[in-house]
Structures are given as structure tokens and as C-alpha cells.
Design brief:
With 201 residues, the protein is an alpha+beta fold. It has two domains: 124 residues, Alpha-Beta Plaits, CATH 3.30.70.1730; 69 residues. The protein is built from seven helices and five strands; from the N terminus they run H-E-H-E-H-E-H-E-E-H-H-H. It has a five-stranded antiparallel sheet with strand order 2-3-1-4-5, sandwiched between helices. The longest helix is centred in the C-terminal third of the chain and has 53 residues. It is elongated, with a radius of gyration of 38 Å. The N and C termini lie far apart (111 Å).
């Protein structure tokens, strides 16, 4: 590889390292082109997988501020650059490595911390971002429903009291009007009429 090509390759690697939410380094010895395609698909959206020379990766990592131990940069190396759900990509790598023993997970880098192979596998055991968000949304929905119920309860009680008062006022208003407008002499016939109505009922 010419010097200019090396410089370009290092710059590209450094940019990928900076833009990634996490990376996982693997040894890909013996994988076919078809298997590599399957592996790339298993990483999920926002992730890429590329073969990289160890010497260039070491330089690029230093430029990007990513600390990678010498153990990670031995043998044939390919790097999973992950943008987005790191857990989903780790699961994809772990499951692929189980089905294809030629793929070996060497370690990775996440949130400013170097990970060994076991830590990457533990990361794969976590729940994915989608599952966690779904659980969080469910919990928030339940909390909001409870909060709405608490707010609505006093409002509903107040509404019922207001309705009852309005009904009571409506019932009392005609009786008061009749008492004010009708002469005292007409009170007896009204009582008799009421009695007749009651007897008919």
C-alpha cells in the first residue's frame, strides 16, 4: 500500500472510530464472502463491518482517542463500527460467533472504556434499546394514567356537586315563584287539586 493510500486509510478509520457509538474487534479467519455478508446483516441498522490492518488501526485509534490494547490488534482483524443500538449489534456478533466458530470476538470499545471479549458477550446479554424503550414507555403510560386518574377524581366529584346544586336550584325556583305570585285564597284549591291528582295516581 502506497504512503498516500495509508494516510487515506488511517483517516477513514479514525473518522469511523470517532463517529461510532461503540466498536467490536473480531478475528475473522476463514470466513467466506457469503458469511461476511450474513455477519454484516446480523449487526442491524447503523452498523458496518470492515477488515482493517492492525498497524493502521493502531495509528487511527491513537488519532481518534480510542485506547486499544495490543492484544486486540493481533491476527487478522475486522472491526464492527456501531452507530445506534450497541446491544443489538453485540447480540448479532455473539450469535454469529456461536454458529460460526471461525469468528472470534476479541474485544471492543464503548463509552470511553475498553472491553474484553467477556464484557462484549455480557453486553450482548442485556436487553436491546427497543425493549428498554418499550418497557419505559409502558411504565410511563401507567404512571400517567394513574396521575390522570388522581387529577380527574376531584374534578369529577366537583362536577357532580355542581350538577346536584344546579338541579336543587332548578327544583326550588318554580315553587318560590308560585308562592310569590299566587294569592293566598288560591292556595286551598291548589292543595285540593294536588290531592285529586294524588288520589288519581
Amino acid at each position: 500500500m502506497a504512503n498516500a493510500e495509508k494516510v487515506a486509510a488511517v483517516a477513514e478509520l479514525a473518522q469511523s472510530l470517532r463517529e461510532s457509538d461503540g466498536i467490536v474487534l473480531t478475528e475473522y479467519r476463514g470466513l467466506t464472502v457469503k458469511q461476511l455478508q450474513e455477519l454484516r446483516r446480523s449487526l442491524g441498522e447503523g452498523a458496518s463491518y470492515a477488515v482493517a490492518k492492525n498497524t493502521l488501526t493502531k495509528i487511527a485509534a491513537r488519532e481518534a482517542g480510542v485506547e486499544l490494547s495490543e492484544d486486540l490488534l493481533t491476527g487478522p482483524t475486522a472491526i464492527a463500527f456501531i452507530k445506534g443500538d450497541v446491544v443489538e449489534a453485540a447480540k448479532g456478533l455473539r450469535d454469529f460467533a456461536k454458529a460460526n466458530t471461525t469468528l472470534v470476538i476479541k474485544g471492543g470499545f464503548l463509552d470511553g472504556k475498553a472491553l474484553d471479549a467477556d464484557e462484549v458477550k455480557k453486553l450482548a446479554d442485556l436487553e436491546s434499546r427497543e425493549v428498554l424503550l418499550a418497557k419505559l414507555a409502558g411504565a410511563m403510560k401507567g404512571s400517567l394514567q394513574n396521575a390522570v386518574s388522581l387529577f380527574n377524581a376531584p374534578l369529577a366529584q366537583t362536577a357532580r356537586l355542581v350538577a346536584a346544586l344546579e338541579a336543587k336550584k332548578a327544583e326550588e325556583a318554580p315553587a318560590a315563584d308560585t308562592a310569590d305570585e299566587a294569592p293566598a285564597a288560591e292556595t286551598a284549591p291548589e292543595v285540593e287539586a294536588s290531592a285529586e291528582t294524588d288520589s288519581e295516581g
